[in-house]
Amino acid sequence: MKVSSLIFIISLLLVTCLLYTINPIQAQQPNRPQGSVTINTDLVVTWAQVTNRTDGSPINGLGIDDFLLREEGKQQQIDLVKEGQPLSVVILVDGQRCVWPPEIEFRRSREALRRLGEDAEIALMAWDSDVRLVQPLTTDQNVIANRLEDGLFFFQALNGPQKVPRPNRGPGRPGEAIYQAARYLEKVAAPERRKIIIVITQSWYLMAQKHLHTGGEGEELLKKTGTTVYALLENIGKRRTPINPWDWVGRKLEDRLRNAGGTLEKFVDLTGGLILVSKNEAWLNDATLTPNGEFGKEFDELFIKLTTMIRSSYTIGYYPEDSNFDGRFRRINLELSRSGKAKAGKADVKSRGGYYALRPSSPTFSEVKN
């Protein structure tokens, strides 16, 4: 056999062996989760809460043609409308003022949490003048429910396990609590999940002047992360403590509140969230600390209503005509189209007011089907 023929045969055998070794390697490459699709990173995602103007109940069943979306005043083509986005939620509980009396606990917290969906991951933070993570994100809703049903857990998390409450630690810092919750979600929550903060407290005006982060910083972080803030408030009636005007001399009240840490009302409005306030006060008699049983029932119902509305919100995605992602904040406006108004009737639409034009790394959205 000629040398050239022998070299050809040996070369052919080497190539064949190489092909056989490549195939197994390719077969071992990790596959994407089934039912998932990588979205073009130019996709901008926002959310909408559509509610009946009469009773506040969520309106379901709307589609792409039922919404109109404008970016910087220019109408955009909507490419995605979906209900039931997977959620990452931080529940912020005001531990300083014992938001609800120990005798009145969340009796139906499991029912409320189920409304967020079985795939929801939930964390708990206690706050007053400090902020403390007391339960990292978990999908075990029984763990969250057990904590919520313990009326003193959040107070003790901040003050220690004492039977007699300590003196007031100082005015609360709701703005700081919201900032820290948003920062936690930014670090821990998966990018395809909608980020939610639920604040449970008495009043957004009972607050300290000084925060570690200003209200402006809180607003910027909420815009950047796309986090929506909701609130469940106790009706404190005559016990509402107004801000001492002498503490805020020299500047406009709104400016001082913004610098101090921001107001809960502003954060909610900015992110397209919602505030629910109880009609009944927690105490029948402040002097004797006689609890109001009707308040306990109502707070349970409000919690269920709030979580139902959060889960029933719409995820809306579009590819902006301006494809220059320069990092600037772009304002968006969302409303119902003519067909949407015909389906929904008298309805209110709430959504976040804009987004930072940043192109993230390619996320995989398991909730979007081919």
How does this structure look, described?
By secondary structure, the protein is of the alpha+beta class. The chain has three domains: 1-30; 37-82 and 314-365; 87-311, von Willebrand factor, type A domain (Rossmann fold, 3-Layer(aba) Sandwich), CATH 3.40.50. The protein has helices at 3-27, 109-114, 141-148, 153-159, 174-188, 215-225, 253-260, 264-271, 293-311, 338-344; strands spanning 37-38, 44-52, 67-71, 74-76, 78-83, 87-94, 121-127, 131-138, 194-201, 228-235, 275-281, 283-285, 290-291, 314-318, 329-336, 347-351, 354-356, 364-365. The protein has a six-stranded mixed sheet with strand order 8-7-6-9-10-11, with helices on both faces. It has a four-stranded antiparallel sheet with strand order 5-14-2-16, with helices on one face. Strands 4-3-15-17 form a four-stranded antiparallel sheet. Strand 7 (121-127) and strand 8 form a beta hairpin. Helix 5 (174-188) runs parallel beside helix 6 (215-225). The longest helix is centred in the first third of the chain and has 25 residues, at 3-27. The termini are far apart. Residues 12-40, 238-251 and 361-370 have low confidence and may be disordered.
In short:
The protein has 10 helices and 18 strands.
Tags for this entry?
370 residues, alpha+beta, Rossmann fold, 3 domains, four-stranded antiparallel β-sheet, 10 helices
CATH topology heading of the largest domain: Rossmann fold
- The CATH architecture category of the largest domain equals 3-Layer(aba) Sandwich
* Helix percentage range: 25-40%
Structural class: alpha+beta
* Stretches with pLDDT under 50, minimum 5 residues: 12-40, 238-251, 361-370
Q: Mean of the pLDDT scores?
A: 76
| Total domain units | 3
Strand order of the largest sheet: 8-7-6-9-10-11
Q: What is the top-level CATH class of the largest domain?
A: Alpha Beta
Question: Helical segment tally?
Answer: 10
